[in-house]
Amino acid sequence: MGVIKNYRQIREYKKCLDHIVHEWNMTVSDNDMKQLVSRGDYYKLVRAIVDSLPDKEKIKEAETLLAAVVNNELLPEVHFQWLHDSDRIACFSLYYIMFHPAKNKSNITSNGCTISDFSKKPAMKNDEIDMITRDDYVDAIMQYVDETKLPLTDKVKYLSEMQKYWRKEYNTHPQPFDWLNKKSEEDIQWAWDYMVKNLVHFPLRPINNYQRWQFIEAAFYTLPERDLTEMISIITRNKKRMSKKDQQESDIHNLGVVGFQIDSESLDYKSKFLKEMRNAWAQKNWRERNRTGQKKEKVPKLDGVTLKKLNQIQQETGEGINDIISRLVEEELSHYERKKLWSH
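Now predict its structure.
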């Protein structure tokens, strides 16, 4: 079964229809199934099947039974309400069910692709899946949970674990890519390419730049742990792809950068990955400035300690020193203006 658009509108009647087909062994024609689009379509089909029973008593029994099926086998929508809080949460949750599925396998498919238990690579792969809005994500999650063969208590626990996972990741990395311009298509494409190169999986293809940014964040938050041997292998492989000149430039630059320390036990895996990614971004900017022959910036006369700190910020962010000073001045001025406003 494919992921259904506007699923929440039809979930009760779809549950009734599934019960009729699988438990009552009643056949629904392919033609009838193709006509099912809206809530009204599902209602009419279920109503017609129930009304076709031989007598009023059987019809009443069927109505009571189907009402019980809906009440006992579908979670109330309130359990999914937190997924509507933001696009980030909804998109993260979609990635969560692909990388952290419920214990049993689901029958949900999309164009022949199944969401199932898979540790690192999600089994759900579809380049043109019709999910664009926050509601689309939540509908897909709701359908997945509904069709997972687990007791309601376990479904509640699964959603609770998902929320707990999000809370931990969000509070650890509230803005993991704040050094990128999320309105810049070039920056976002670089981040996407970097993550793909480092074996981060994007099972869904974005429809626009905004969704690409959502997928980048969601993929980072659900990034599976890798051991250090695998991380060293990825870094070594990527370095081999560079030209000799780029390798030399990278090595020289890394001498002055607070680099990615593979043996650092003080950072978790995602922090290590993020640090390496940020350093790669700074190296890219550093190489580009060298290749374009930009003249060395004239830096205002500063004491040694302050200049050292500015150099560190430059190495971390890839910004020019004068750009950093301008940005800091703007931030301080903005802070002063706000303080002045509230002092009256």
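The first strand starts at residue 109 and ends at 110.
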